[in-house]
Write a structure and sequence with these properties.
With 113 residues, the protein is of the alpha+beta class. It has a single domain (5-106), classed as Nuclear Transport Factor 2, Chain: A. The chain has 3 helices and 6 strands; from the N terminus they run ααββαββββ. A hairpin with a 2-residue loop joins strand 5 (86-95) and strand 6 (98-107). The chain is globular. 21% of the residues are buried. Pfam families: SnoaL_2. It comes from Frankia alni (strain DSM 45986 / CECT 9034 / ACN14a).
Length: 113
Amino acid sequence: MSDTTVIDDYFAGWNKQDTDAILATLTPDVVLEDVPTGHGAAGTDEARAFIDNALSQTAGTTYDVVTTLSDGATYAIEWVMQPAGIRGSSFGSLREGRIAVNRDYWSLPRKSA
């Protein structure tokens, strides 16, 4: 397992709802994708708009990171978005200590029968 500081910093930025902190963890040519919604971004300008939009739609949420796996070049993370209890995973790649690609996969909690 390699150093996961940039991943920790990425989620800390989301938890603080701080666009600049999130952007500081990304490469200038980053690719972001929210697979369930089909939304994505490429590059810093699009990433800023993507992040700002996501933060405006999820105000007050935080991410509990359950598991982080990384070999220094790629990563996989399991997380839970609170307070909604949305479970998800992020997969991506790292370059020069920053996130180059991040793809999120999630689903809404099941309603009890």
